[in-house]
What we know:
Elements: E1 6-8, E2 38-41, E3 44-47, E4 52-55, E5 58-59, H1 64-75, E6 81-82, H2 83-90, E7 94-95, H3 98-112, E8 122-125, E9 129-132, H4 143-150, H5 168-180, E10 183-187, H6 194-204, E11 213-217, H7 227-234, H8 244-252, E12 258-262, H9 268-281, E13 286-291, E14 301-304, H10 319-322, H11 326-337, E15 342-343, H12 346-358, H13 363-370, H14 373-384, H15 406-414, H16 419-428, H17 437-447, H18 454-463, E16 468-469, E17 476-477, H19 480-495
Amino acid sequence: MTADTVITQEVSAVGPPNTLPRATQANAxxxxxxxxxxxxxxxxxxxxxxxLLLKDGNALPIGNRSLEILILLAERQGxxxxxNELIARVWPxxxxxxxxxxxxxxxxRKALGDGIGGARYxxxxxxxxxxxxxxxxxxxxxxxxxxxxxxxxxxxxxxxLARMVGRDNDVRKVSDLLRTTRFVTVHGPGGVGKxxxxxAVAHDQLASFQGDIHFLDLAKITEPHLLPVALASxxxxxxxxxxxxxxxxxxxxxxxxxxxFDSCEHLIDAAAALIEKILREAPEIRVLATSRETLQAxxxxxxxxxxxxxxSIEDEQSAERLFSHPALNLFINKVAAxxxxxxxxESDAQIVAKICRRLDGLALAINLAATRxxxxxLSQIVGSLETNTWLFWQGHRTALPRHQTMAASIDxxxxxxxEDEKAVLHHLSAYRxxxxxxxxxxxxxxxxxxxxxxxxxxxxxxxxxxxxAGEGLARYxxxxxxxxxxxxxxxxxxxxxxxxxxxxxxxxxxxxxx
Length: 514
């Protein structure tokens, strides 16, 4: 290890394991695993366990692969790390040429400002690999972060994904919005990754709020009146049943904190009212919400989260370039994690691109498809996507019920619709491609009992992320997963000769081979 690189270790467990570690003195000897503490070099602090890189106390956006390279170089304490070892760490189970590694290292150097103003962080050793060097061992205390976590204020903040793909720019934009506005809603369809992005934003903002960040999962709350009680409980307060808002508002009134309301759509009215009340009573509070439906509350700034970027049909790129697109990147990472050896051939790259486009870049759908590669193969997956059976592919056993299949994910949204909205959604599923607003209204009028409600119903479906509005609102479309789901619902209604205004059984309970 070079003398100018400092490793600082966590010395006591003052907070939960998912908060930032406390700091020791800059020259304290390193003990235990380096992953338990953090690395300090130049103006940077690297926290491997949190997968967090700070520059002068601010989170630095950096791609997952570049971050993985930096962590490995830091863990090896100034030693030369071979190219093959780096490739095996960053692309486990995937054969990739050294050119891909060079691209990541170049990007990492650019992010660190390597070479600017005499800074020197990553050294290339010809014919061998790379090592981490530093020009200074100066250390600045992270006591401000520690003080926030000593109060247990970040104890309910979930850990970010070990590897988040393709969302760095979204995280940066949402973080920027929170600096200029007090209330931001991350809006998008089920399975797109809203919760993942919100958790990443929360960790990005730990320093800004000195750890005073609270995460509330609304999906676990079934009744609107329990929402203020649950929020007060997350603060460690006991809310009186007569007025649960009082204790909660008193607690937040003079504090500067970030509150995260995750999955608001099923409690949309209660969530909007509570957030408005908090923002009126507590001027230093910031709120980040995630929802499939916009809250339409006072002060809300909506950030629409789309699927991960996929290459267009016209793109004729090399396999390496194709797999640099976030959707394909996520797909091959999940395939590798399943233990399947994956060759980056040109033909396979085109097939994976087709799969990801068919899945609209939805992170949940891509994860579900990628885990089927070892058993089905790429060609069979393409064929399955032409039917509705893929809606029932099972995900992680421990995932929330609504995240275990795509059918269950869409069930969550569908069950919140009224009968008019369901009928219009069924009718619009006949469109394989995008359609105009006039066409959507014409389709709606054919099934609505009150035809003049056509615009109102279309607007509701857009607001609830079941119709996607294109740029400039010129055209609309159904995501392929939602269209397949709506077709299944429509066909079931026809086969049962079921009247339109009746309740539906959950689609996830039906046989996929019906």
